[in-house]
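This part of the workshop introduces the protein records we will be handling. Getting from the letters to the tokens is the skill we practise here. An example says more than a description, so a record of this kind follows:
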Amino acid sequence: MAKIDDHYILVESENPTFENEITSQPVEKGVDVSDHVQRKPRTLNLTGFVAGPDASKTREYLKNASDKGRVVWYSGRNTMQGVITGLNTTHDSTVGDGFAFAFTIQEIRVAAPNPAEKLDPPTRAQAAPIINAGVKTTKGKKAASSKSSKSETKQKKSNKKTNDKKNSDKLKGSTGLIWPM
């Protein structure tokens, strides 16, 4: 008898697989060069039977765990924690009060949450990526006529200086340094 979470099942065969992925690069002469080996997720193929008065409850549990991607714990001759993939049930005359099954449990690794979310707001603001680069000045359009007076030119230069000063005030950080544009 084997057990998947709190449900007993009769397992006929367990077939664990331990695969690796090997990357290789072709070379001019000879065998390809292999430079990296990475382990693939472990899998456990199970076939067996479920019989008895609780067979329908066990079947519903297996279906729900497979559909929702619930992590299950299997304990038999081998043990594994993972997700049920490829659930297949057979209902024929060989099992009167239950069903035959075949499915695979695949090992998974769940990503950890972002640790920046646990920080206090001022520290989290420092760790956050810069989204706004500040205010940028745009170049003004040149006048359509080529004749412009000297007073207009002086006025434009003084306006540009005041705009630059305003923009530099906006770019000052908490240390008082001006950030480069």
Summary: The longest strand covers residues 79-90. Strands lie at 2-4, 7-17, 20-25, 33-39, 43-51, 71-75, 79-90, 98-106.
